[in-house]
Amino acid sequence: METEKKLPKEIDPTVGRNIRHLRVKKGLNIADLANAVDSDVGNISRLERAKQGYSDEMIRKIADFFECPVSDLFKPDLPFDNLSADSDAQPTRLKAKVWEDGSQDSEEFVEIPLIDVQFSAGSGSVEIIEKEEFALIFRRYYLHKLGVSIAAAKLVRVIGNSMEPRLSDGDVVGINTDDTRIRDGKAYGIRHGDLLRVKYLIEQPGGGVIIRSMNREEFQDENLTYQQRREQLVVLGRVFWSSSTW
């Protein structure tokens, strides 16, 4: 995507707050807005956090996208537009705290890319396209607390329903590729033959392994012998984080 150039030295935090307000109000994430105005996630994120200036062209694109005058982006406080003109209600002083509001910098936060690899939570998937889709932001301290190095953290999307109710179709999971030792009761991203899957793994006496789904009413355990395990199974990493859709 095209990156904005000739950014002014002056940075106006009001512009960033107003852009974030309009974006959140529309239920969009940063990637949605970036795609809509031919920018990238990093530029929009820094603009909203007053870490970066803006070009006249970019401001016009954003204003056109939100169908508002450019001047609205420079107002100290955008008006509440969910109250009727004759309403006696007063807008609350309480503000929702969204993750973008934090003072994010490279020392405290890190972006982990969601790569376009489909991990099946059903019968399996053969899509292996490692292309960055977008990035999610994590605190370095959070990853450190979990024992996950930044280089080893991978985010992938799951498909299927075999891990319901914990994981639904379309959820995102974080895989720690440094943690491949099987511990009973833990979920792992695995390559089973040509299939990429998210499953519980249980080691068996003699070196075999059970591949287990959470939705055991529909999906039975799969038992691999030691030889089958060696030939068919590659543990890509333990699941350390997941999103949940409703």
Describe this structure in words.
By secondary structure, this protein is of the alpha+beta class. It has two domains: 13-79, Orthogonal Bundle (434 Repressor (Amino-terminal Domain)), CATH 1.10.260.40; 109-242, Umud Fragment, subunit A (Ribbon). Helices cover 22% and strands 28% of the residues. The protein is built from six helices and nine strands, in the order H-H-H-H-E-E-H-E-E-E-E-E-E-H-E. A nine-stranded mixed beta sheet has the order 2-1-3-4-9-5-6-7-8. A hairpin with a 2-residue loop joins strand 5 (187-192) and strand 6. Helix 2 crosses helix 3 (41-48). It is elongated and about 70 Å long. The relative contact order is 0.11.
What do we call the CATH homologous superfamily of the largest domain?
Umud Fragment, subunit A
| Biggest sheet layout | 9 strands, mixed
The CATH architecture of the largest domain: Ribbon
For the CA atoms, what is the radius of gyration? 23 Å
What is CATH's topology name of the largest domain? Umud Fragment, subunit A
SSE string, helices as H and strands as E: HHHHEEHEEEEEEHE
Question: Number of helix segments?
Answer: 6
Shape: elongated
Low-confidence stretches: 1-9, 80-104
For the record, what CATH class of the largest domain applies?
A: Mainly Beta
Strand percentage, roughly? 25-35%
Structural class: alpha+beta
What kind of assembly state do the chains in view correspond to? Answer: single chain
